[in-house]
Automatic annotation (TrEMBL):
Its main location: cytoplasm. InterPro entries: 4pyrrol_synth_GluAld_NH2Trfase, Aminotrans_3, Aminotrans_3_PPA_site, PyrdxlP-dep_Trfase, PyrdxlP-dep_Trfase_major, PyrdxlP-dep_Trfase_small. Its cofactor is pyridoxal 5'-phosphate. The modification N6-(pyridoxal phosphate)lysine is found at residue 289. It is an enzyme of class 5 (isomerase). The gene is hemL. Homodimer. This is Glutamate-1-semialdehyde 2,1-aminomutase. It catalyses: (S)-4-amino-5-oxopentanoate = 5-aminolevulinate. SUPFAM superfamilies: PLP-dependent transferases.
Length: 455
Protein backbone atom coordinates (compact mmCIF):
# COMPACT_ATOMS: atom_id res chain seq x y z
CA UNK A 1 0.00 0.00 0.00
CA UNK A 2 1.20 3.53 -0.81
CA UNK A 3 -1.62 5.54 0.69
CA UNK A 4 0.64 8.26 2.09
CA UNK A 5 3.63 8.01 -0.24
CA UNK A 6 3.38 10.37 -3.19
CA UNK A 7 6.58 9.23 -4.88
CA UNK A 8 7.31 12.83 -5.90
CA UNK A 9 9.65 15.32 -4.27
CA UNK A 10 7.85 18.60 -3.42
CA UNK A 11 9.03 21.55 -5.50
CA UNK A 12 7.57 24.37 -3.39
CA UNK A 13 7.62 25.13 0.33
CA UNK A 14 3.82 25.29 0.38
CA UNK A 15 3.53 21.85 -1.21
CA UNK A 16 6.10 20.40 1.19
CA UNK A 17 4.26 21.83 4.20
CA UNK A 18 0.88 20.63 3.00
CA UNK A 19 2.29 17.14 2.64
CA UNK A 20 3.98 17.29 6.04
CA UNK A 21 0.78 18.35 7.80
CA UNK A 22 -0.86 15.06 6.81
CA UNK A 23 1.70 12.84 8.53
CA UNK A 24 3.43 15.02 11.15
CA UNK A 25 1.85 16.99 14.04
CA UNK A 26 1.87 20.62 12.96
CA UNK A 27 3.94 19.61 9.94
CA UNK A 28 7.19 19.88 11.92
CA UNK A 29 9.36 17.82 14.25
CA UNK A 30 10.28 20.74 16.53
CA UNK A 31 7.78 23.53 17.32
CA UNK A 32 9.79 26.65 16.49
CA UNK A 33 10.20 25.43 12.90
CA UNK A 34 6.47 25.92 12.30
CA UNK A 35 6.78 29.73 11.89
CA UNK A 36 3.89 30.16 14.36
CA UNK A 37 5.33 33.36 15.85
CA UNK A 38 6.25 34.96 12.53
CA UNK A 39 3.44 33.66 10.35
CA UNK A 40 3.61 32.17 6.89
CA UNK A 41 4.79 28.85 5.52
CA UNK A 42 7.99 27.27 6.84
CA UNK A 43 10.94 27.10 4.48
CA UNK A 44 11.88 23.50 3.71
CA UNK A 45 15.64 23.26 3.30
CA UNK A 46 17.20 20.87 0.81
CA UNK A 47 20.94 21.55 1.21
CA UNK A 48 23.58 23.72 2.80
CA UNK A 49 27.14 24.72 2.04
CA UNK A 50 29.40 27.15 3.84
CA UNK A 51 27.29 30.10 5.10
CA UNK A 52 24.35 29.28 2.81
CA UNK A 53 21.28 27.06 2.81
CA UNK A 54 19.00 26.31 -0.16
CA UNK A 55 15.29 25.49 0.00
CA UNK A 56 13.25 23.05 -2.08
CA UNK A 57 12.41 25.86 -4.51
CA UNK A 58 16.10 26.42 -5.19
CA UNK A 59 16.34 29.76 -3.38
CA UNK A 60 19.58 30.35 -1.51
CA UNK A 61 19.81 32.17 1.83
CA UNK A 62 22.63 33.41 4.02
CA UNK A 63 22.08 31.30 7.12
CA UNK A 64 22.12 32.92 10.57
CA UNK A 65 20.54 29.88 12.26
CA UNK A 66 23.47 27.51 11.80
CA UNK A 67 21.57 24.40 12.91
CA UNK A 68 20.85 26.38 16.11
CA UNK A 69 24.58 26.48 16.82
CA UNK A 70 26.35 23.33 15.60
CA UNK A 71 27.45 24.72 12.19
CA UNK A 72 30.48 26.45 13.72
CA UNK A 73 32.60 25.92 10.59
CA UNK A 74 29.70 26.36 8.17
CA UNK A 75 27.53 23.77 6.44
CA UNK A 76 29.12 20.70 4.85
CA UNK A 77 32.66 21.61 5.88
CA UNK A 78 34.98 19.30 3.89
CA UNK A 79 36.84 17.96 6.94
CA UNK A 80 33.63 17.22 8.83
CA UNK A 81 32.03 15.56 5.80
CA UNK A 82 35.16 13.49 5.20
CA UNK A 83 35.14 12.32 8.81
CA UNK A 84 31.48 11.34 8.49
CA UNK A 85 32.06 9.41 5.26
CA UNK A 86 35.02 7.55 6.73
CA UNK A 87 33.01 6.61 9.80
CA UNK A 88 30.01 5.49 7.73
CA UNK A 89 32.27 3.24 5.70
CA UNK A 90 33.24 1.48 8.94
CA UNK A 91 29.62 1.01 10.05
CA UNK A 92 26.73 3.18 11.22
CA UNK A 93 26.76 1.92 14.79
CA UNK A 94 27.68 -1.02 16.94
CA UNK A 95 25.86 -0.71 20.27
CA UNK A 96 29.26 -1.28 21.84
CA UNK A 97 32.23 0.79 22.94
CA UNK A 98 34.50 2.29 20.30
CA UNK A 99 37.77 4.19 20.38
CA UNK A 100 36.11 7.23 18.79
CA UNK A 101 34.13 7.86 21.99
CA UNK A 102 37.33 8.00 24.01
CA UNK A 103 39.04 10.25 21.48
CA UNK A 104 36.20 12.78 21.55
CA UNK A 105 36.10 12.79 25.35
CA UNK A 106 39.85 13.45 25.44
CA UNK A 107 39.45 16.37 23.03
CA UNK A 108 36.73 17.89 25.22
CA UNK A 109 38.72 17.45 28.43
CA UNK A 110 41.80 18.97 26.80
CA UNK A 111 39.82 22.06 25.80
CA UNK A 112 38.46 22.44 29.31
CA UNK A 113 41.89 22.27 30.94
CA UNK A 114 43.50 25.70 31.22
CA UNK A 115 46.91 26.65 32.57
CA UNK A 116 47.49 30.08 34.07
CA UNK A 117 50.63 32.18 33.75
CA UNK A 118 51.91 30.85 37.07
CA UNK A 119 51.47 27.25 35.92
CA UNK A 120 48.32 26.53 37.92
CA UNK A 121 45.89 24.21 36.16
CA UNK A 122 42.11 24.69 36.08
CA UNK A 123 39.84 21.94 34.83
CA UNK A 124 36.23 22.60 33.83
CA UNK A 125 35.38 18.89 33.92
CA UNK A 126 37.19 15.69 34.83
CA UNK A 127 35.07 13.06 33.08
CA UNK A 128 32.48 12.99 30.30
CA UNK A 129 29.50 10.69 29.59
CA UNK A 130 28.18 10.87 26.01
CA UNK A 131 24.44 10.84 25.26
CA UNK A 132 22.38 11.69 22.18
CA UNK A 133 20.62 15.01 22.88
CA UNK A 134 20.92 18.10 25.05
CA UNK A 135 17.61 17.20 26.69
CA UNK A 136 19.04 13.82 27.66
CA UNK A 137 22.19 15.45 29.04
CA UNK A 138 20.33 17.90 31.30
CA UNK A 139 17.82 15.26 32.36
CA UNK A 140 20.69 13.00 33.40
CA UNK A 141 22.46 15.87 35.17
CA UNK A 142 19.40 16.47 37.34
CA UNK A 143 19.00 12.80 38.18
CA UNK A 144 22.70 12.64 39.02
CA UNK A 145 22.49 15.74 41.24
CA UNK A 146 19.56 14.26 43.14
CA UNK A 147 21.38 10.95 43.46
CA UNK A 148 24.54 12.65 44.72
CA UNK A 149 22.79 14.85 47.30
CA UNK A 150 19.76 12.77 48.25
CA UNK A 151 17.64 15.91 47.88
CA UNK A 152 14.49 16.46 45.75
CA UNK A 153 14.36 20.12 44.70
CA UNK A 154 15.74 21.84 41.62
CA UNK A 155 16.16 25.60 41.15
CA UNK A 156 15.98 26.99 37.61
CA UNK A 157 15.61 30.44 36.12
CA UNK A 158 12.60 31.82 34.27
CA UNK A 159 13.29 31.91 30.55
CA UNK A 160 16.08 29.35 30.65
CA UNK A 161 15.51 26.34 28.42
CA UNK A 162 17.20 23.04 29.24
CA UNK A 163 15.32 20.65 26.98
CA UNK A 164 11.81 19.27 27.16
CA UNK A 165 11.98 16.85 30.10
CA UNK A 166 9.11 17.24 32.55
CA UNK A 167 10.88 18.99 35.40
CA UNK A 168 12.41 21.66 33.16
CA UNK A 169 9.47 23.14 31.26
CA UNK A 170 8.28 25.53 33.96
CA UNK A 171 8.64 29.07 32.56
CA UNK A 172 11.09 27.86 29.93
CA UNK A 173 12.37 29.78 26.95
CA UNK A 174 12.91 28.73 23.31
CA UNK A 175 9.79 27.27 21.69
CA UNK A 176 7.83 27.52 24.93
CA UNK A 177 8.42 31.28 24.96
CA UNK A 178 7.51 31.58 21.30
CA UNK A 179 4.24 29.67 21.72
CA UNK A 180 3.36 31.44 24.97
CA UNK A 181 2.96 28.17 26.91
CA UNK A 182 3.75 28.45 30.65
CA UNK A 183 4.58 24.76 30.93
CA UNK A 184 3.11 21.76 29.18
CA UNK A 185 0.10 19.54 29.41
CA UNK A 186 1.05 16.08 30.62
CA UNK A 187 3.31 17.28 33.45
CA UNK A 188 1.92 16.37 36.84
CA UNK A 189 1.64 18.92 39.65
CA UNK A 190 3.87 16.69 41.75
CA UNK A 191 6.65 16.88 39.17
CA UNK A 192 6.27 20.63 38.70
CA UNK A 193 6.38 21.17 42.47
CA UNK A 194 9.95 19.84 42.56
CA UNK A 195 11.21 22.73 40.43
CA UNK A 196 11.49 26.22 41.90
CA UNK A 197 11.63 28.99 39.29
CA UNK A 198 13.23 32.32 40.15
CA UNK A 199 14.13 35.44 38.10
CA UNK A 200 17.47 35.39 36.30
CA UNK A 201 20.31 37.66 37.43
CA UNK A 202 18.51 38.25 40.73
CA UNK A 203 20.87 37.85 43.70
CA UNK A 204 18.14 38.52 46.26
CA UNK A 205 15.83 35.84 44.83
CA UNK A 206 18.71 33.35 44.88
CA UNK A 207 19.48 34.10 48.52
CA UNK A 208 15.81 33.88 49.49
CA UNK A 209 15.21 30.51 47.85
CA UNK A 210 18.20 29.00 49.64
CA UNK A 211 17.17 30.56 52.94
CA UNK A 212 13.75 28.94 52.59
CA UNK A 213 14.66 25.60 51.02
CA UNK A 214 18.44 25.24 51.22
CA UNK A 215 18.52 21.83 52.90
CA UNK A 216 16.19 20.34 50.25
CA UNK A 217 17.78 21.77 47.09
CA UNK A 218 19.79 19.28 45.07
CA UNK A 219 21.01 21.69 42.41
CA UNK A 220 20.72 25.00 40.62
CA UNK A 221 20.64 24.64 36.83
CA UNK A 222 21.48 27.60 34.63
CA UNK A 223 22.34 28.33 31.03
CA UNK A 224 25.96 29.46 31.29
CA UNK A 225 24.75 32.43 29.25
CA UNK A 226 21.04 32.49 28.52
CA UNK A 227 20.20 32.21 24.81
CA UNK A 228 16.66 30.84 24.68
CA UNK A 229 14.76 34.01 25.59
CA UNK A 230 16.98 35.90 23.22
CA UNK A 231 20.53 36.39 24.41
CA UNK A 232 20.66 37.52 28.05
CA UNK A 233 24.14 37.08 29.53
CA UNK A 234 24.73 36.68 33.25
CA UNK A 235 25.76 39.72 35.20
CA UNK A 236 29.53 39.69 35.82
CA UNK A 237 30.21 37.25 38.63
CA UNK A 238 26.67 35.85 38.71
CA UNK A 239 27.72 32.33 37.75
CA UNK A 240 30.36 32.39 40.46
CA UNK A 241 27.70 33.51 42.94
CA UNK A 242 25.52 30.59 41.88
CA UNK A 243 28.32 28.13 42.51
CA UNK A 244 29.31 29.66 45.84
CA UNK A 245 25.72 29.81 47.09
CA UNK A 246 24.89 26.27 46.03
CA UNK A 247 28.06 24.86 47.57
CA UNK A 248 27.52 26.75 50.84
CA UNK A 249 24.22 24.86 51.21
CA UNK A 250 25.47 21.45 50.08
CA UNK A 251 23.85 21.73 46.64
CA UNK A 252 25.37 21.42 43.17
CA UNK A 253 25.61 23.81 40.21
CA UNK A 254 24.68 22.48 36.77
CA UNK A 255 25.95 24.71 33.96
CA UNK A 256 24.11 24.15 30.68
CA UNK A 257 26.57 24.79 27.83
CA UNK A 258 24.56 22.96 25.18
CA UNK A 259 24.49 26.20 23.15
CA UNK A 260 27.55 28.07 24.43
CA UNK A 261 29.91 25.11 24.66
CA UNK A 262 32.89 25.58 22.30
CA UNK A 263 31.27 28.58 20.59
CA UNK A 264 32.40 31.58 22.66
CA UNK A 265 35.91 30.21 23.14
CA UNK A 266 37.69 26.90 22.72
CA UNK A 267 36.69 26.23 26.34
CA UNK A 268 33.14 27.53 25.97
CA UNK A 269 31.55 30.11 28.23
CA UNK A 270 33.46 28.70 31.19
CA UNK A 271 36.70 29.56 29.39
CA UNK A 272 35.47 33.06 28.61
CA UNK A 273 34.73 33.71 32.29
CA UNK A 274 38.06 32.21 33.32
CA UNK A 275 39.81 34.69 31.05
CA UNK A 276 37.70 37.55 32.45
CA UNK A 277 38.59 36.70 36.06
CA UNK A 278 35.05 35.65 36.97
CA UNK A 279 35.64 31.90 36.78
CA UNK A 280 33.29 29.55 38.58
CA UNK A 281 33.25 25.90 39.63
CA UNK A 282 30.31 24.03 38.14
CA UNK A 283 29.82 20.51 39.45
CA UNK A 284 28.16 19.30 36.25
CA UNK A 285 28.24 20.78 32.75
CA UNK A 286 26.11 19.74 29.80
CA UNK A 287 27.21 19.98 26.17
CA UNK A 288 25.51 19.51 22.81
CA UNK A 289 25.27 20.88 19.27
CA UNK A 290 28.90 21.65 18.35
CA UNK A 291 30.16 18.60 20.22
CA UNK A 292 28.42 16.39 17.63
CA UNK A 293 29.52 18.33 14.58
CA UNK A 294 25.90 18.62 13.46
CA UNK A 295 24.81 15.06 14.26
CA UNK A 296 22.76 14.02 17.32
CA UNK A 297 25.27 13.91 20.17
CA UNK A 298 25.56 15.52 23.57
CA UNK A 299 27.54 15.05 26.74
CA UNK A 300 27.47 15.39 30.50
CA UNK A 301 30.72 16.34 32.17
CA UNK A 302 31.75 17.11 35.71
CA UNK A 303 33.80 16.18 38.72
CA UNK A 304 34.96 12.58 38.65
CA UNK A 305 33.50 11.78 42.06
CA UNK A 306 30.04 12.79 40.81
CA UNK A 307 30.27 11.26 37.31
CA UNK A 308 31.37 7.98 38.86
CA UNK A 309 27.96 7.72 40.52
CA UNK A 310 26.60 6.81 37.08
CA UNK A 311 26.08 3.15 36.20
CA UNK A 312 27.98 0.88 35.86
CA UNK A 313 30.13 2.28 38.70
CA UNK A 314 27.38 3.82 40.79
CA UNK A 315 23.67 3.69 41.64
CA UNK A 316 22.43 6.40 39.23
CA UNK A 317 21.17 4.74 36.07
CA UNK A 318 21.66 6.13 32.56
CA UNK A 319 21.92 4.27 29.27
CA UNK A 320 21.41 4.79 25.56
CA UNK A 321 21.60 2.51 22.54
CA UNK A 322 22.86 5.37 20.37
CA UNK A 323 25.09 7.03 22.98
CA UNK A 324 28.54 7.66 21.54
CA UNK A 325 27.43 6.79 18.00
CA UNK A 326 30.62 6.29 15.93
CA UNK A 327 29.55 8.60 13.08
CA UNK A 328 28.55 11.38 15.47
CA UNK A 329 31.74 11.20 17.54
CA UNK A 330 33.79 11.32 14.32
CA UNK A 331 32.06 14.47 13.10
CA UNK A 332 32.26 16.02 16.55
CA UNK A 333 36.00 15.38 16.75
CA UNK A 334 36.50 16.86 13.27
CA UNK A 335 34.52 19.95 14.27
CA UNK A 336 36.56 20.52 17.42
CA UNK A 337 39.86 19.99 15.60
CA UNK A 338 38.82 22.54 12.98
CA UNK A 339 37.87 25.17 15.55
CA UNK A 340 41.21 26.83 16.27
CA UNK A 341 42.19 30.34 17.35
CA UNK A 342 41.50 31.81 13.90
CA UNK A 343 37.89 30.62 14.08
CA UNK A 344 37.35 32.12 17.53
CA UNK A 345 38.89 35.36 16.32
CA UNK A 346 36.71 35.55 13.22
CA UNK A 347 33.32 34.74 14.76
CA UNK A 348 32.96 37.88 16.92
CA UNK A 349 34.22 40.12 14.11
CA UNK A 350 31.65 38.78 11.65
CA UNK A 351 28.86 38.87 14.23
CA UNK A 352 29.68 42.46 15.20
CA UNK A 353 29.71 43.62 11.56
CA UNK A 354 26.30 42.07 10.91
CA UNK A 355 24.76 43.29 14.16
CA UNK A 356 26.11 46.83 13.72
CA UNK A 357 24.73 47.01 10.18
CA UNK A 358 21.28 45.84 11.20
CA UNK A 359 21.28 48.14 14.22
CA UNK A 360 22.21 51.14 12.09
CA UNK A 361 19.37 50.37 9.67
CA UNK A 362 16.85 50.07 12.50
CA UNK A 363 18.07 53.31 14.06
CA UNK A 364 17.72 55.09 10.72
CA UNK A 365 14.05 54.07 10.68
CA UNK A 366 13.50 55.15 14.29
CA UNK A 367 12.85 51.60 15.55
CA UNK A 368 13.58 51.15 19.26
CA UNK A 369 15.93 48.20 19.66
CA UNK A 370 19.05 46.90 21.33
CA UNK A 371 21.57 44.15 20.55
CA UNK A 372 22.49 41.75 23.34
CA UNK A 373 25.64 39.63 23.28
CA UNK A 374 27.06 36.40 24.68
CA UNK A 375 30.40 35.90 22.99
CA UNK A 376 29.63 35.71 19.26
CA UNK A 377 25.98 34.83 19.88
CA UNK A 378 23.64 37.79 19.69
CA UNK A 379 20.01 38.74 19.29
CA UNK A 380 18.01 41.88 18.59
CA UNK A 381 15.41 43.00 21.11
CA UNK A 382 12.80 45.54 20.07
CA UNK A 383 13.25 47.63 23.22
CA UNK A 384 15.61 50.41 24.28
CA UNK A 385 17.91 48.52 26.64
CA UNK A 386 19.29 44.98 26.99
CA UNK A 387 17.09 42.82 29.22
CA UNK A 388 18.40 41.29 32.41
CA UNK A 389 15.74 38.58 32.82
CA UNK A 390 12.77 36.85 31.19
CA UNK A 391 10.20 39.49 32.14
CA UNK A 392 12.31 42.21 30.56
CA UNK A 393 12.93 40.05 27.47
CA UNK A 394 9.17 39.74 27.04
CA UNK A 395 8.69 43.51 27.47
CA UNK A 396 9.48 44.42 23.88
CA UNK A 397 7.64 45.14 20.64
CA UNK A 398 7.57 41.50 19.59
CA UNK A 399 5.10 42.34 16.80
CA UNK A 400 7.87 44.06 14.88
CA UNK A 401 9.85 40.85 14.48
CA UNK A 402 7.53 38.99 12.08
CA UNK A 403 7.66 41.67 9.33
CA UNK A 404 11.41 42.12 9.97
CA UNK A 405 11.96 38.36 9.67
CA UNK A 406 10.00 37.98 6.44
CA UNK A 407 11.71 40.96 4.82
CA UNK A 408 15.09 39.43 5.61
CA UNK A 409 13.90 36.08 4.24
CA UNK A 410 12.59 37.71 1.05
CA UNK A 411 16.00 39.31 0.53
CA UNK A 412 17.85 36.04 1.00
CA UNK A 413 18.71 35.91 4.71
CA UNK A 414 17.47 33.12 7.00
CA UNK A 415 17.00 34.16 10.64
CA UNK A 416 15.74 32.12 13.59
CA UNK A 417 11.93 32.24 13.24
CA UNK A 418 11.37 33.66 16.73
CA UNK A 419 12.32 36.87 18.49
CA UNK A 420 13.34 34.73 21.49
CA UNK A 421 16.22 32.89 19.81
CA UNK A 422 19.95 33.54 19.46
CA UNK A 423 21.56 34.26 16.09
CA UNK A 424 24.66 32.38 14.96
CA UNK A 425 27.45 33.05 12.51
CA UNK A 426 30.10 30.60 11.34
CA UNK A 427 33.72 30.62 10.22
CA UNK A 428 32.37 30.30 6.65
CA UNK A 429 30.61 33.68 6.72
CA UNK A 430 32.92 35.58 4.40
CA UNK A 431 32.71 39.16 3.10
CA UNK A 432 30.28 38.18 0.32
CA UNK A 433 27.86 36.56 2.76
CA UNK A 434 28.07 39.50 5.15
CA UNK A 435 27.39 41.96 2.33
CA UNK A 436 24.25 40.05 1.40
CA UNK A 437 23.01 40.35 4.98
CA UNK A 438 23.77 44.06 5.12
CA UNK A 439 21.98 44.60 1.81
CA UNK A 440 18.82 43.18 3.39
CA UNK A 441 19.07 45.42 6.45
CA UNK A 442 17.37 48.55 5.09
CA UNK A 443 14.22 46.89 3.69
CA UNK A 444 13.91 44.76 6.83
CA UNK A 445 14.20 47.84 9.04
CA UNK A 446 11.52 49.58 7.00
CA UNK A 447 9.24 46.57 7.45
CA UNK A 448 9.81 46.63 11.21
CA UNK A 449 9.10 50.36 11.33
CA UNK A 450 5.85 49.95 9.41
CA UNK A 451 4.60 47.08 11.60
CA UNK A 452 1.61 47.59 13.88
CA UNK A 453 0.50 45.59 16.93
CA UNK A 454 -2.09 42.90 16.31
CA UNK A 455 -5.52 43.83 17.61
Amino acid sequence: MTRFISGRTPTTNAEAFERALVVTPGGVNSPVRAFRSVGGTPVFLASGHGPYVTDVEGKEYVDLVGQWGPALLGHAHPDVIAAAHAAVDRGLGFGAVSTGEVELAELVLDRLTLTSADGAERRGIEKLRLVSTGTEATMTAIRLARGATGRPLLVKFAGHYHGHSDSLLSEAGSGIATLGIPGSAGITPETAAQTIVIPYNDEDALAEVFTSHGDRIAAVITEAAAANMGVVPPKPGFNRLLADTAHAHGALLIADEVMTGFRSTAAGWWGLEEAAGTGYDADLTTFGKIIGGGLPLAGLGGRAEILDLLAPLGPVYQAGTLSGNPVAVATGAAMLRGAGPEVYGQLPRVARTIADGLSSALSAEGVAHTVAWAGSQFSIFFRDSPPQNYAEAQAQDTWRFGPFFHAMLEHGVSLPPSVYEAWFVSAAHDDAAVERVLAAAAPAARAAAAATPAL
